[in-house]
Amino acid sequence: MIRIENVTKYHEGRVVIDDVTLTINDQTNVGLIGPGGCGKSVLLKIVCGLIKPDKGRVLIDDIDVHKLKPTELADLRFRIGMLFQNYALFDSMNVADNIAFPLRQAGETDETLIAEKVKQALIDISLPGIGDRYPNELSGGMKKRVSFARAVIRRPPIVFYDDPTAGLDPVTSSKIFILLRKMQHEHDTTSVTISHDIEGIKDICDRFAMLDRGRLIFEGDRQAIEACEDSLVSQFWQGYSDDELNV
Ligand SMILES: Nc1ncnc2c1ncn2[C@@H]1O[C@H](COP(=O)(O)OP(=O)(O)OP(=O)(O)O)[C@@H](O)[C@H]1O
What we know:
This protein is of the alpha/beta class. The chain has helices spanning 40-47, 70-77, 95-105, 111-124, 140-152, 170-187, 198-202, 222-227, 231-238; strands at 2-11, 14-24, 29-33, 55-60, 63-64, 80-83, 158-162, 190-194, 207-212, 215-221. The strands form two sheets. A six-stranded mixed β-sheet has the order 6-7-8-3-9-10. The chain is globular and about 55 Å long. The site of adenosine-5'-triphosphate has 12 residues, from strand 1 and helix 1.
């Protein structure tokens, strides 16, 4: 279970995460939504220990993430897969080595096994045989899928996806969402997915949390968000605005 308790974060004199409390139960897939800049990515980075909160705490299976020593934090991160917004692939490594990185980092030395796992991962993301290519030879959508493969290669029980379909065409986006769903169903992962693609995450998440200017303004299941009377939540969910657009 992931428990975010009264987490607050300031950045350059202003509050970025404002007293957020949220519980994510095991094998639950949470869609984290909200306007650009509301703090979604910062919250995920706080949860996985990359950014320290100014107040509050994060517990993963009762372990206080920000009280861990660096080596203990590294151990915890072995259990967490992360798909970053900016791909975060290593440009100097080919695709196969990028995908194999978490396996080798975890101490796997059986190169035959690694090669088999990488081969299967490339098949799973519908990019068989591209292991020898380098990230700069790939399209944005291919990089996202390779990042996905790397994030889940060790089948981590917890996975965080930061806008996995940002900037992708609809066909590639739907492929990514299919992969996400497959991970959830076949490996019972607990996940948090940040996405601006409401239609896409409707079907892959069982609960939803919405941030607005760092505050948690909604948490609940699909039925609850569809019935939510808060105009900000319902407009965001349905993808329209009462205000005229200032263009
Ligand atoms: N290391 C950091 N610690 C705390 N706050 C940060 C840090 N880096 C950036 N910020 C601030 O956090 C705010 C929220 O950014 P964040 O990337 O979390 O928004 P977001 O909701 O994920 O936006 P988007 O949907 O556009 O990706 C920004 O205003 C940014 O200035």
